């Protein structure tokens, strides 16, 4: 059995568009407030920021020995609904659709589609969920608006 790529989170999130993941790949990590370094290699890895290391969805999926939340008989549970509906992370709302794609097409095909979606169509630079304009070539990107920021 092929090991699932670390960027394929149990919840259906694509970790490859996370600013911490991208900074880890490019620069070794982000400097957090207070000087701490945040690094991440993806949900299924051992190097994670504290909020991902303590994720209840990941803990539950591992305990139940399922590959994705969509494989659970209790999906969507209250924890998943809270994750999906969080106003602070609007990109979470797309995860149920991603889980459906994973189930229909397999995680490898889904991962390839995520790599295309979260890369600049003009220059190919990987993009974060928050990138609405490519930092390299200034092309439009599919990113989300951060809550509390102006358009």
Please give the structural blueprint.
Layout: H1 19-27, E1 30-31, E2 37-38, H2 50-53, H3 56-64, H4 78-84, H5 95-105, H6 107-117
Antiparallel strand pairs: 1-2
Taking the sheet with the most strands, its summary is: 2 strands, antiparallel
Approximate helicity band: 25-40%
Could you say which structural class the secondary elements and strand pairing correspond to? mainly alpha
Q: Average pLDDT, to the nearest integer?
A: 93
Nearest-angstrom radius of gyration? 15 Å
Percent in strands: under 5%
Spans of 5+ residues with little confidence (pLDDT < 50)? none
Strand order of the largest sheet: 1-2
Explain this structure to me?
With 151 residues, the protein is mostly helical. It has a domain at 73-129. Helices cover 34% and strands 3% of the residues. The protein is built from 6 helices and 2 strands. Strands 1-2 form a two-stranded antiparallel ribbon. A hairpin with a 5-residue loop joins strand 1 (30-31) and strand 2 (37-38). Helix 5 (95-105) packs across helix 6. The longest helix is centred in the middle third of the chain and has 11 residues, at 95-105. The termini are far apart. The model has no long low-confidence stretch (mean pLDDT 93).
